[in-house]
User: Which sequence fits this backbone?
């Protein structure tokens, strides 16, 4: 039980720390691309770790008590984590592409090589 | 077991505070993509917090709601991004 508590503290600490870094970076960075960089990557990383804590908790309680409710909790958390991992970077790419297409330049940028290449 | 309840509900409360930080950017944001980024961050934090709350109260239904919320927020983000991209082309 003590080992489970230590693992949960470490995983939840890492997860909450990176989620906080993501939201602080969203407030502090100067333009939309750096905000996207901070917010999306850091919050995805932190959410992976908090979900891993719940998965390990569910399987450990199922192993100790034999209650199948905890097994269902862990398996559904795995499904939610897979949905989060697949959908979050895809949405970030769509936002960055839409921001570039709508003509927003990065702050302090002088040239735009992506626009000069004329890619469709 | 109240020990495990506290372990999971306190990070959930911290995620709620981070959601309020992101809400400041959603209100202040100078351009439309800034607001979309803030909304996407809030959605990710809601999914993570809902998983934590489901583990704290030992209710599986919160995690099912989190799955559906993740997929619906992804569709919403893609829809708004597509709208923004198409609006500048024509």
Assistant:
């Amino acid at each position: 039980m003590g080992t489970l508590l230590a693992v949960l503290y470490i995983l939840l600490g890492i997860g909450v720390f990176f989620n906080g870094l993501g939201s602080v970076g969203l407030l502090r960075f100067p333009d939309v691309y750096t905000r996207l960089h901070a917010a999306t990557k850091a919050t995805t990383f932190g959410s992976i770790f908090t979900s891993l804590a719940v998965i390990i908790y569910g399987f450990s309680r199922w192993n100790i008590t034999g209650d199948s409710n905890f097994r269902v909790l862990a398996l559904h958390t795995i499904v939610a984590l897979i949905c989060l991992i697949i959908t979050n970077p895809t949405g970030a790419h769509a936002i960055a592409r839409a921001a570039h297409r709508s003509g927003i330049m990065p702050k302090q940028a002088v040239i735009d090589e992506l626009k000069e290449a004329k890619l469709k | 077991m109240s020990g495990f309840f506290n372990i999971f509900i306190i990070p959930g409360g911290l995620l709620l505070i981070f959601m309020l930080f992101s809400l400041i950017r959603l209100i202040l944001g100078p351009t439309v993509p800034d607001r979309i980024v803030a909304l996407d961050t809030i959605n990710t934090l809601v999914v993570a917090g809902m998983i934590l709350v489901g583990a704290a109260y030992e209710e599986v239904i919160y995690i099912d709601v989190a799955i559906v919320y993740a997929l619906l927020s992804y569709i919403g983000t893609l829809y708004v991004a597509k709208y923004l991209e198409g609006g500048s082309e024509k």
About this structure: Chain A has one domain: 2-116.
